[in-house]
Amino acid sequence: MKIDKPKKPPLPLRLLRQLWILIPLILAAAMYFLLPMFPEFTEQVISRGLFKIYTVPVGFLTSLIPISLTELCAVLAIPAVITLIVVFIVRMKKSRDRRRTAIKAGRFLAGAVSFAAFIYMTAHGANFYRQPLEQLMELDTSAKSPEFLSRVCTELATHAAEERLLLTEDENGCVKFTEDIWAELSRADSGYEALTEDHPFLWTSVSRQKPVQLSYLWSYTGIVGMYFPFFAECNVNIEQPDFCQPFTASHESAHSRGIAFENECNFLAFLSCINSEYPEYRYSGYLMAFKFCSNALYSADRELWETMAAGTSEGMWRDLRAENEYIRSFEGEAKKVFTSANDTFIKVQGVKDGTRSYDRMTDLVLAYYYKEWHQS
């Protein structure tokens, strides 16, 4: 009796079985190339839809864990890679069909990269292509005069000086936390409550900003905060001066709320801090905004800057000098490498000025005060 051989599935089906693991990568690539052309679609469907679907449950769960999963992964990354290489070599030596073993390993690696690319675009990357924050918040970011900039600097300095009187100093006369670091970082959401009422798109389930335990070593990279989209997790370098940390925590929280551009995260950090019920947050927001605006004024009009600076608090300058000393103390080749890598990463997202985009927070701060003062 003749037994018929089973028929092969059609070629398209066979290809689908072999290449289905690349579908997430193809979708990620489509998002990367197409979404910049459709900011309204990106805003409504991706940033307010798909992004929330992933980030809300993941962020809620990771916020329950009282350690930085990002830091844990960074520590375990090298031994994990070494282990995978060793396992691959052992299996290749024991394999009767090394070609098939190598193909399986390649498929595993391709699948991991494919799914990682899609998750990244869903959980962060696509937000670079949503509608700009000045449009969503109706802010006029057109150029403002040096005189207006000087007025804003004076306003920020006045508030910063007032808030500083409510805080404790260390032996060097710099602002010092009085609470446990976990308690301090947990306050980052306080200022966002008012913002979320006016701008619901900023809502998130991420409620815990996590201190990095290896912050001293991390400081050599020049990174003061990191949002890890795969875990929807906000991480804060706690080696930096205390007054910087509320602003950093609020900046990273902005990423968890769907904001990708660094200048926009800086601006939201400022807004959330000054709306906080905690004076250390309000001080951090006012002083960090003052730093950016003051630097812009110094470049625009040195004479106006000197007039403005003459009326500021000496305590503010002690804190800013402490931040400069912190930055200088960790200068080195490692920092140059990580800064260059971060600059390249930001530029790949379509931000032409890379890490310099952080400074464009000044335009948003000026637009905010322009709107506030013209409406009152």
Can you describe this structure in just a few lines?
Helices cover 64% and strands 5% of the residues. By secondary structure, the chain is mostly helical.
Keyword list:
376 residues; mainly alpha; three-stranded mixed beta sheet
For the largest sheet, list the strands in their spatial order: 3-5-4
Helix content: 55-70%
Quick one: biggest sheet? 3 strands, mixed
Distance between the termini: 95 Å
Overall average residue pLDDT: 90
**Beta-strand level of the residues, as a percent range?**
under 5%
Q: Could you give the count of β-strands?
A: 5
The sequence of SSEs as H and E is HHHHHHHEEHHEHEEHHHHHHH
Dominant shape: globular
Give your account of this protein's structure:
With 376 residues, this protein is mainly alpha-helical. It is built from 17 helices and five strands. The protein has helices at 11-19, 23-34, 39-63, 69-94, 98-123, 133-136, 146-164, 181-185, 192-198, 215-218, 245-256, 262-274, 279-300, 302-309, 314-329, 333-348, 361-375, and strands spanning 168-169, 175-176, 209-212, 225-228, 233-237. A three-stranded mixed beta sheet has the order 3-5-4, with helices on both faces. It has a two-stranded antiparallel sheet with strand order 1-2. The longest helix has 26 residues, at 69-94. It is globular and about 80 Å long.
